[in-house]
Design goal:
The chain is of the alpha/beta class. It folds into two domains: 227 residues, Type I PLP-dependent aspartate aminotransferase-like (Major domain) (Aspartate Aminotransferase, domain 2); 106 residues, Aspartate Aminotransferase, domain 1 (Alpha-Beta Complex), CATH 3.90.1150.10. Helices cover 41% and strands 15% of the residues. The protein has a seven-stranded mixed sheet, sandwiched between helices. It has a four-stranded antiparallel sheet with strand order 11-12-15-14, with helices on one face. The protein has a two-stranded parallel ribbon with strand order 1-13. Helix 1 runs antiparallel to helix 10, helix 2 packs parallel to helix 10 and helix 11 runs parallel beside helix 14. The radius of gyration is 21 Å and the shape is globular.
């Protein structure tokens, strides 16, 4: 029904991902190479045909679309008043950090983690406080003793959390989320949960919304969500914040208003409603395709490039690849791979923690491009080994 093998030429369209030389293949930034759902394209074309794009209010359909989706897909019932529009998850996080913390405060993160977390914290004059995830060789675990110690620091006022985890694709279970929630509440640390990848789980696997775990988690959290990663529409600048606790919600709404990033564009509203009301079948087909892509990468590396290792991933279209077997005394494996083969992966060092011996691969592309990337990766690793 949906053709994810179709290759759409993105060069010359201003795409950041494809701003590379003609001989290079980009598999780095978290941006899919699939056309969005036909249902979304149809809705956008209908809206464009109207011809007038004035200032836009949020219609009731926008609220219903979000509420129905999270209840149906994630078993979490939201109320209309909890929801607010924002132009993006990262702009929202920056606004919330500026409002809920003071210059010089610590914002705690679990590393390795999405690199823009560092920017959101440092660019606002706050201090990054890392609690390093413990690497077992196959997965990561939270060092709760270290986490608790850093939450108790009086200067720690916010915990910026990634659920599901980027770059590893790890899904946090209910017990882990509950423990995090209790520790943060006990130490008067507000949780800001980035859940933008939540819909991109493997078929048969579900994520747990942080705010759904307990009253404690719900009342002490700001959740940032969006259809953009899920439906390949990040350029439309459409997202939402969910804040159940009234006093906290008023602070967040004020923060978004002051920073002028809560005004919806006409197409942003149209796309979000169409995604959540009509995009379910497309998304389920996409999840199966991405699951198969990730398995192809795992099998290929296991059989043909055993010097590197892919970590298990239950969510996102990203794979976290351990390159310690080829790094030796020199880190920056992504740069070396790119120089040799033209394959552009993301350097793991930008995610903090022990990321300097890892690369992140984006598998959300048509299979012919995926196989091209794997061939390039094999060539590069073989050369690096010798």
């Amino acid at each position: 029904m949906y053709n994810f093998d179709k290759i759409t030429d993105r060069r010359g369209t201003g795409a950041i991902k494809w701003n590379v030389s003609e001989t290079e293949l980009p598999m780095w930034v978290a941006d899919m190479d699939f056309e969005t759902a036909p249902e979304i394209i149809d809705a956008l074309q209908k809206r464009v045909s109207h011809g007038v794009f004035g200032y836009t209010d949020l219609p009731e359909e926008w609220y219903r679309a979000y509420i129905s989706w999270w209840e149906r897909r994630h078993h979490f019932t939201m109320r209309k008043e909890w929801l607010g529009f924002c132009t993006g998850v990262i702009p929202a996080i920056s606004s919330v950090i500026r409002r809920l913390t003071a210059p010089g405060d610590n914002v705690l993160i679990l590393t390795p983690v999405y690199n823009h977390f560092f920017y959101c914290i440092r660019n606002n004059g706050r201090t990054v406080l890392e609690s390093r995830l413990q690497y077992t060789g196959d997965a990561y675990e939270i060092d709760f003793a270290d986490l608790e110690e850093k939450l108790k620091d009086p200067l720690t006022t916010a915990f910026l959390f990634c659920n599901p985890q980027n770059p590893t694709g790890q899904i946090w279970d209910t017990g882990t989320l509950d423990r995090i929630g209790r520790l943060c509440a006990e130490n008067h640390v507000t949780v800001i949960s980035d859940e933008i990848h939540c819909d991109l789980t493997d078929p048969g696997t579900e994520y747990v919304p942080f705010a759904s775990v307990s009253d404690v988690c719900r009342e002490n959290s700001v959740t940032c969500i969006a259809p953009t990663k899920t439906f390949s529409i990040p350029g439309l600048q459409t997202a939402a914040v969910v804040v159940p606790q009234e006093d906290l919600r008023n602070k967040v709404k004020r923060a978004l208003s002051v920073d002028e990033n809560c005004e919806p564009g006409a197409l942003a509203v149209t796309a979000a409603i169409a995604a959540y009301e009509q995009g379910e079948a497309w998304l389920d087909a996409l999840r199966a395709y991405i699951r198969d892509n990730k398995e192809i990468v795992r099998s290929y590396i296991r059989e043909r490039i055993p010097a590197i290792k892919v970590l298990p991933s239950e969510a996102t279209y990203l794979l976290w690849i351990d390159c310690s077997g080829i790094c030796k005394d020199e880190a920056e494996p992504a740069a070396r791979i790119r120089r040799i083969s033209g394959l552009f992966l993301t350097e793991g060092s930008i995610y903090g923690g022990n990321g300097d011996r890892f690369v992140r691969m984006n598998t959300a592309c048509p299979r012919p491009l995926l196989m091209d990337g794997l061939g390039r990766l094999e060539k590069a690793v073989m050369e690096l080994q010798h």
